């Protein structure tokens, strides 16, 4: 067997684990922390001209102050649909329509809601950990195939340790991101 066929693609494993972290960060952005953030509206889709369109593509999203988001809808006929999509989004925000501008006052979070959000953040983090472990499993499967194809015990041990170190590093990154997000949510 050629030596390069026995190599494990650590760059691919790293890229896939980076993808799990990016996905986690995107999910964390959708969690409301009591502070207004334009990214809170990213998952909201509006039925626009027969197709589902992200809210930020039918209007301009602004954060004029820490407890207010405004959405300036470009097409007046889309204002009611956008308002309905925001109401139905589950964010717990009550939109106020003023012409083509939709104002979204962000209410203060109570203690119970903060705890609920920390649990949701923990679920997101667990999904990211599972994704990282799945990438690790794929790497270990590659290693088993390489070993059966003639990789030496020493090389197998080196690659196994490297894959495990990479996994441990990304799990630690998920844990620290979760701690930071939970502290942000619980901050009054």
List keywords for this structure.
2 domains; alpha+beta; 54% helix; two-stranded antiparallel ribbon; elongated; 188 residues; 4-stranded antiparallel β-sheet; Topoisomerase I, Chain A, domain 4; Gyrase A, domain 2; single chain
Walkthrough of the structure:
By secondary structure, the chain is of the alpha+beta class. The strands form two sheets. The protein has a four-stranded antiparallel β-sheet, with helices on one face. Strands 1-2 form a two-stranded antiparallel ribbon. The chain has four helices and six strands; from the N terminus they run αββββαββαα. It is elongated and about 70 Å long. A hairpin with a 2-residue loop joins strand 5 and strand 6. It holds the Pfam family RRF.
Summarize the structure.
The protein has helices at residues 10-29, 79-87, 111-148, 153-186; strands at residues 45-48, 51-54, 59-65, 68-73, 96-98, 101-105. By secondary structure, the protein is an alpha+beta fold. It has two domains: 9-29 and 110-186, Topoisomerase I, Chain A, domain 4; 38-105, Gyrase A, domain 2 (2-Layer Sandwich).
Topology:
Elements: H1 10-29, E1 45-48, E2 51-54, E3 59-65, E4 68-73, H2 79-87, E5 96-98, E6 101-105, H3 111-148, H4 153-186
Antiparallel strand pairs: 1-2, 3-4, 4-6, 5-6
Protein name: Ribosome-recycling factor
InterPro entries: Ribosome_recyc_fac (IPR002661), Ribosome_recyc_fac_dom (IPR023584), RRF_sf (IPR036191)
Subcellular location: Cytoplasm
């Amino acid at each position: 067997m050629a030596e390069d066929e026995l190599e494990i693609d650590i760059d691919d494993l790293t890229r896939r684990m980076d993808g799990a972290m990016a996905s986690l960060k995107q999910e964390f952005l959708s969690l409301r922390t009591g502070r207004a953030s334009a990214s809170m509206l990213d998952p909201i889709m509006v039925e626009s001209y027969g197709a589902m369109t992200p809210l930020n593509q039918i209007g301009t999203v602004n954060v004029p102050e820490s407890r207010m988001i405004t959405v300036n809808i470009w097409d007046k006929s889309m204002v009611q649909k956008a308002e309905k999509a925001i109401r139905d989004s589950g964010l717990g925000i009550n939109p106020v329509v003023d012409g083509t501008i939709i104002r979204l006052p962000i209410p203060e979070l109570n203690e119970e809601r903060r705890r609920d959000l920390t649990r949701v953040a923990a679920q997101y983090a667990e999904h990211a950990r599972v994704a990282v472990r799945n990438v690790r499993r794929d790497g270990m499967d590659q290693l088993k195939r390489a070993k059966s194809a003639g990789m030496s015990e020493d090389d197998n041990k080196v690659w196994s340790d490297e894959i495990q170190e990479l996994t441990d590093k990304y799990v630690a990154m998920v844990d620290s991101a979760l701690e930071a997000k939970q502290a942000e949510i619980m901050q009054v």
